[in-house]
Amino acid sequence: MSDINWDLLWSEARNMLQFSYCPYSNFPVGAAAVTTDGKLVKGCNVENASYGLGLCAECSLVSDLASKGGGKLAALVVVASDGKPVAPCGRCRQLLWEHGGKTMQIMSSEGPIQFATLLPDAFGPEDLLTRTVHD
Ligand code: THU
User: Fold this and answer.
1) Is residue 45 a contact partner of residue 29, using CB atoms and an 8 Å limit?
2) Which of 13, 33, 94, 135 satisfies CB 3.0 to 4.6 Å to 76 for a cystine?
3) Does ligand 1 lie within 6 Å of residue 59's CB atom?
């Protein structure tokens, strides 16, 4: 989609940094995305004393998407406090695949790229739909 307002996504993602709860890593992450029907959704990382249970910003963004009625993500910006894009971790790539798929655009250090670049040969909902063997 060429009509993505990347400036808005950048500023919304950066604005989310203030809400990050990251006392363990001190690495705030903010995220903002727009859906194909124009909804803006946002997230920030939320860490936990158990360390491993911390939530990434993309994870909280996906929850925001669900709470706003769902939809398909068209474009996403994830940013750290240095103002540069963050490449989603492996778990978040899988989470995002479900709601953005291969055509979602994500801001990288090189500019917007197709999400399929970050998760080639992905496993997704279609596998369950088309490959479940019934008796
Ligand atoms: N983090 C995210 O929120 N998103 C990513 O894609 C990479 C990492 C968070 C998790 C943790 O709270 C902090 O960054 C340091 O890893």
Assistant:
1) yes
2) 33
3) no
Q: Is 58 a catalytic residue?
A: yes
Looking from the CA of residue 86, the nearest atom of ligand 1 is 6
pTM over 0.70? The answer is yes
The pairs formed by 53-59 with CB atoms below 8 angstroms and a separation of 24 or more are: 54/24, 54/25, 56/29, 56/88, 56/89, 56/91, 56/92, 57/16, 57/20, 57/29, 57/30, 57/31, 57/86, 58/31, 58/88, 58/92, 58/95, 58/96, 59/91, 59/92, 59/95
In tens, the pLDDT along 6-20 reads: 999 999 999 999 999
Mutate to test the pocket of ligand 1, among 42, 79, 89 (most ligand atoms within 8 A of CB): 89
- The active-site residue out of 12, 47, 58, 110 is 58
d(CA 41, CA 48): 23
Instruction: Kindly report the backbone phi and psi dihedral angles of residue 44, in degrees, each rounded to the nearest multiple of 5, phi listed first.
Output: -145, 160
